[in-house]
Amino acid sequence: MPMKSRKALTADRPRRQSGAADSDLTAVRRYQRAVNYLAAAQVYLKSNPLLEEPLRPEHVKDRLLGHWGTCPGINLLYLHSNRLILRTEASLLLVTGPGHGAAANLANMYLDGTLGEFYPELTRDRAGLQRFIQRFSWPDGFPSHLNPALPGVIHEGGELGYALATAFGAVLDNPDLVAVCLVGDGEAETGPTATAWHSIKFLHPVTDGAVLPVLHLNGFKISSPTIFATMTDEELASLFRGHGYAVRIVGHLDRIHGEMDEAMAWAHGEIRRIQEAARAGRIPERPAWPMLILRTPKGWSGPREIDGRAIEGSFRAHQVPGKELRTHPAHLQAVEAWLRSYRPQELFDAEGRPAEDVLALCPRGDRRMAMNPHTFGGRMRRPLDLPPLGECQVPVSGRGQTRASSMKAMGRYLREVICRNDQARNFRIFCPDELESNQLGEVLEVTARQYDWPLPPHAEHLRPEGRVLEVLSEHNCQGWLQGYLLTGRHGLFPCYEAFIPIVDGMMNQYAKFLKSSLEIPWREPVSSLNYLLTSESWRQDHNGYSHQGPGFINNLLTKKGHTYRIYLPPDANSLLSTIDHCLRARNTINLIIASKLPMPQWLTMDEAIEHCRTGASVWRWASTNGGEAPRVVLAGCGDNLTLEVMAGVQILREEAPEWRVRVVNVTDLQILGIPQKYPHGLDEERFQRIFPLDAPVIFNFHGYTAAIKQLVWERPVNERFDVNGYREEGTTTTPFDMQVRNRTSRYHLVIQAAQKVAAADPGCSAHAEDLIRKYESRLREHRDFIRREGMDPPEISGWEWKSVTWRAR
Amino acid sequence: MPMKSRKALTADRPRRQSGAADSDLTAVRRYQRAVNYLAAAQVYLKSNPLLEEPLRPEHVKDRLLGHWGTCPGINLLYLHSNRLILRTEASLLLVTGPGHGAAANLANMYLDGTLGEFYPELTRDRAGLQRFIQRFSWPDGFPSHLNPALPGVIHEGGELGYALATAFGAVLDNPDLVAVCLVGDGEAETGPTATAWHSIKFLHPVTDGAVLPVLHLNGFKISSPTIFATMTDEELASLFRGHGYAVRIVGHLDRIHGEMDEAMAWAHGEIRRIQEAARAGRIPERPAWPMLILRTPKGWSGPREIDGRAIEGSFRAHQVPGKELRTHPAHLQAVEAWLRSYRPQELFDAEGRPAEDVLALCPRGDRRMAMNPHTFGGRMRRPLDLPPLGECQVPVSGRGQTRASSMKAMGRYLREVICRNDQARNFRIFCPDELESNQLGEVLEVTARQYDWPLPPHAEHLRPEGRVLEVLSEHNCQGWLQGYLLTGRHGLFPCYEAFIPIVDGMMNQYAKFLKSSLEIPWREPVSSLNYLLTSESWRQDHNGYSHQGPGFINNLLTKKGHTYRIYLPPDANSLLSTIDHCLRARNTINLIIASKLPMPQWLTMDEAIEHCRTGASVWRWASTNGGEAPRVVLAGCGDNLTLEVMAGVQILREEAPEWRVRVVNVTDLQILGIPQKYPHGLDEERFQRIFPLDAPVIFNFHGYTAAIKQLVWERPVNERFDVNGYREEGTTTTPFDMQVRNRTSRYHLVIQAAQKVAAADPGCSAHAEDLIRKYESRLREHRDFIRREGMDPPEISGWEWKSVTWRAR
Fold this sequence. Notes:
The structure is a homodimer of 809-residue chains.
Chain A (H helix, E strand, L loop, with lengths): L21 H23 L26 H18 L2 E6 L5 H10 L2 H5 L7 H10 L27 H9 L5 E8 L6 H6 L13 E8 L15 H11 L2 E5 L5 H24 L10 E6 L9 E2 L2 E2 L18 H13 L2 H4 L8 H4 L17 H4 L8 H4 L10 E3 H15 L6 E5 L17 E2 L11 E2 L4 E3 L3 H13 L3 E7 L7 H15 L10 E6 L17 H5 L7 E4 L4 H13 L4 E5 L4 E3 L4 H10 L1 E3 L13 E6 L1 H17 L5 E6 L17 H7 L6 E5 L3 H8 L8 E4 L10 H7 L4 H15 L4 H25 L4 H4 L12
Parallel strand pairs in A: 1-2, 2-3, 3-5, 4-5, 9-12, 9-13, 10-11, 13-14, 14-16, 15-16, 19-20, 19-21, 21-22
Antiparallel strand pairs in A: 6-7, 8-17, 18-20
């Protein structure tokens, strides 16, 4: 269908269409006129909502905001999705990629009454209409982009690229749900969208629902043509057939409604055909799920041109055409003529009530897309059945005597979670092919990686059904998980620590979505989004510098304190207690960071639970003098950093038992901040019970030091905190050399402690200087050994905590 | 070619191949054996490099690191790229997507002598070979991933996904260069790679070079099959033809060398055919650039199985097969048999010198891929011809009296840069379709957006040739720019501030690449990577909350202080001085943040240059008492925040002229940090000249407050800094309401100043309390006005700096 052969169909020039009866089509065109009118009216008008008076500048908003260009396409798809629902009673929801076209979604939600259910003053009469059009893009009103204040929204669409993955996440384990997903052709250029097309290869037609992607080619982005709009129909069809889709291209404007009716019926039929066959046991190989490509002009039905320059079908339709209408009479005239071309007086009665035939095209009740129950995730959510922690604990018979991998313990725990919730089908793990690498492989003993396409030889642990989705795309993992959570389910995203910043942008947007949701009374809490970061920087000695980066913490710390938590459990039992908490938690982003390699275990399960409850504790058993009246505090946060603290304090216990060193462990990072900003922040009295004002603190931290500095900033005498952390000093090396290079090693801690003690008490300075010399020399010896032998000295790799007199209760 | 019909060809079972003479093929197979042997030997051996003795545990490294699985594929492509070079003398470089297979690249670079040019001790004899194999994955040796320590490397490959865009960036404006780009099938699942395939639609066959992508299907990621390996040949061909490529699939193992010879010759021929036609004036429409899809088993030629489990062709070949060989005799035996299957004694002579026929397959001089001059970007780099700042300045005839858009001034400046460097063709702008939206459209008067595919009607400012590339993919912009810079050119990446975190991960990796490069003596400095962020958070009142996010600053602040700079110029002339500096700068990441909307101008060009040189100044003309002996310091950083400071101080000048308020402006964020960590950090004496120890500082900052807190952390008496910033309090609202919501407005500053003054001097408290009450009430009135009228009060939107007595020199 070459572009030149298509013609614009304006609202006042109806044409005969195929595929639908004339009377039917009249109402369809009237509905289309109504929603296009309402979308445009929201952008421009603050009064005179039905144009009963000639349009004058004082009817027009002072600030004209919104994006007209994408609205007619959203309206067209909304209308034909509604028609499909009316014909089939199918359960549809809509994920709108171009979320900046909120005016269109709002128009449809206003007409079908959804909006009035949440905002009762938005009645479908003149007074309600007046309020409705004014509220758009108005301070404290409706934003110009979709956001959680609008029902039906599980995707914001401000930062483009994530609609498609979100839609797939929503239909997982919802076998009767169809997510219609409008993908803008601008959005389609993004990487995250480009790879989300693969999602069909994961979808199981028996147990999952379906996504109907509609790639909307309206030709232009803000000012350039879109790549997809420059592709031929042959290229487009070839591309998406290659992805595995059955493709239908729609866009003959002179018979668009008939085409759309047919295309939607075909797509829905294909979906049902695949699902019914599969559910009857005839599972198709490489099912060709349908998708539509819809070509309509940008700003279709808007002004053809203004000031002699093309608007409709050009990039100039992107935002607000004729924007100068308060000062340029020609603009005012053009906009008025355009708005009147929809003939609102034919669509609304004298009381401002929408015409019956228009309303008759709206589905009812929870068949309205914005009322689809799945979009109210908080209402759909059922708590997980979680195993008692006692069942999964790592037995600890003496401090530091057991060695265990935190991630292996986590794997056993998650296996249990999967078993217990197998019937409910409401828990999934999304991972960039790192489950086994991250030592979580035990879950694959009771479930599989879900994948639907045929597999090559030697593939293991993959089946069309499974609770795990693995794909080498953090973007897909995040998008799928968001869709899954916002439709009321639970999930976990394990990832290499260094590569989770790939989804920084997505996480930023999700944090905004969460924060806004919390301000909407009818948004009930959804499950928290849980990141489990491992293969962490300190043990990426082998993969090297590119695999070392704890910066996700810093990104999360920029968010509102009540929207996130950051946990760095020091051992396996603490990790289990943490995940138990996180899988119950709601409405937060939880970041958990722990190691996958075997490490000494410090706490029994009961102790771990208590440690996690308080978020930080004095480890009296590790301290000298029982941790009382400390001269210096050694604090660890992060399991590898805690190990160095323990090894450091052991040296100090032997070399300077009189130095009263207190050992503190922090597992919940937020406790460091003040409670006014951080819900988990310790009140100042409790904070000082752990970190006395008069004792210097050597804080050995897993991440960049900036995180600690900003958290303790508001604390009195914050300069007592001397923070060690990751200093971007890495390469392919050994585990201990990573600590040495970043100056977080046990020897550095001993040297730092000696410096602090000497500074406070000159009487100790001779002893301190001896220790400093001794351990600086030890550092040099170890560096030499490592360079020579390519491995850590045995006294490091074989190090054990010596204080074994203590026994578990 | 269904998978089952292919057979593994092991090193000791040569077969007759088509397309090459027998004698030729013998050497080809011997070269292949040599590089596969060297790759495997590097992973396992620390001595006995030619297996002259039976393999014993003490010959084996204690820590076995590296990724064998991808090495045979890299070796195959390296070999056949070399053969193409030998046949055609073409200028090729190699971008290796699976950078974790560095052992393969190293093997080829060792053989062709490249490595010896930079590491003379790595001679091609027994002693050199011994050093070579030991150095791999050894502390302070060669990392297991490609990194800047290796010649020819312009892409690290640790975080997967960016090879393809980098390769396209490298060939822009290098018409005779061909970048062979190996894309792993794991990497191909990433979003950034998925959209980078579109890059051919931008490439101009007359003035740019070509990329030859080779999608390597080795079937598995870490533990799952790759998506692409589960696709049929028909699906693969359809997908990439849809993208616009001419596709050839290679992978008959029994005649692989003949196939590869033919395929490489075909691809090179197609490239030349397209280029020659275009350069003769017959520019092809939608040129079908060639690409190869290469199917070989993962870990091909490695052990078939170990412990009864398949290795070759399975995910178990990913890293180090038979890893337990120091403790498991069966592993030792399997690895020894495997290594001996390459028959190293036939490939190296008694002195450890590689055989002549093997060496004869290596190109010479700078035709070796790792010696391609374009990969030595620092050597290729020529400084830009930059316009004198005086020519581009914004005339400032009175403080705050001129209103100008910083970005419009920048647009004029960049237009000039493009004109002056038009012949050199070494400056480009990469942007996610936001050039015009960001008010930089003036550059399009002298150049165009480069795009090669045919355009739809109404497209403007696009041509096959142009200095600007716009695509709605921040990933592509970043990848192209990295490739362009690392091959010695210059560039700029303008972006909406809120969406630049999309490339957080890429920036992290680039910062690591830069830091490592600085440690390599033969890496000469490349141009800095310049981000120009605008449409910044404070003026995204209209697009709303999703478009507000200054967090990229915080991410950059996690890097080493010498690898980045962050600039927030307060007005247009300061911005011009900043960009002039940044376009001359080398080896850093520069972040520039400025507004696009008209704002009051404060500094003449001479003043701006001086202000930028020092990074921060006392604005005596704005302060009371000439800024002397301040009772309180009001500091602004960021143009919108500076505006509020100016409006706040104007109120204070009128209401409390006796309060000695000093106005400070910070344009270079690093000056706040200590010079030991930040090269631009002010020494403490100069710092205190601006921020006296005894005066509280109200710091009105553009970004999140954490940035300032971490920078001033080490400064004495840091608690005198009271930091305002973006608090994640946004929505669709008005510009001033953004300031009010985030408590950075002029009224908040007045209230804060009054509180500080009252706290320090009880004599002032009555006056201070009056002011606090007055401006709290003003705040409430303004909020009410904004909600009622949907716009800012005229006294805000029409605010002007009143002190007009001052005149420019």
